[in-house]
Amino acid sequence: MYPTTQADCLTAFGTLRRGAPADAFEIGEGCNRFPPSPVLGRYLADLLHRLVRRGAMSGYTDPFNGGARTAVAELLGPHLEIPLAPSDIFFTRGGTEAINLTIAHLAATGHGLILPLPNYYAFDQSAVRWGAPITGYYRHDGAIHHTGADLPQRTCLVEVLPNGITGAPHTIPARSAPNFTLLDVPFQTCLHNRSSTGILRERIRRLDLRRSAIIITASKDLSLPGLRAAAVISKSTALMEHLGRDNFERIATTSNPLAEMAITLYSSVLPMLEAPHQQSAQQTVRSAHAIVKRAGLPELPGHGDFQRLRQHLTAMSDRFRRNTETLDSEDSPVRIVHTAAPAAGYSAFAELREPQPDFLRWVQECGRQGLRLNPAVVHGGTIPAWEALHPGQQFLRMNLSEPPTELKRGLNLIKEHARFSRARNEGRAVV
Question: 93: Cβ–Cβ under 8 A, 6 or more apart, which residues?
Answer without folding.
Answer: 228, 230, 256, 259
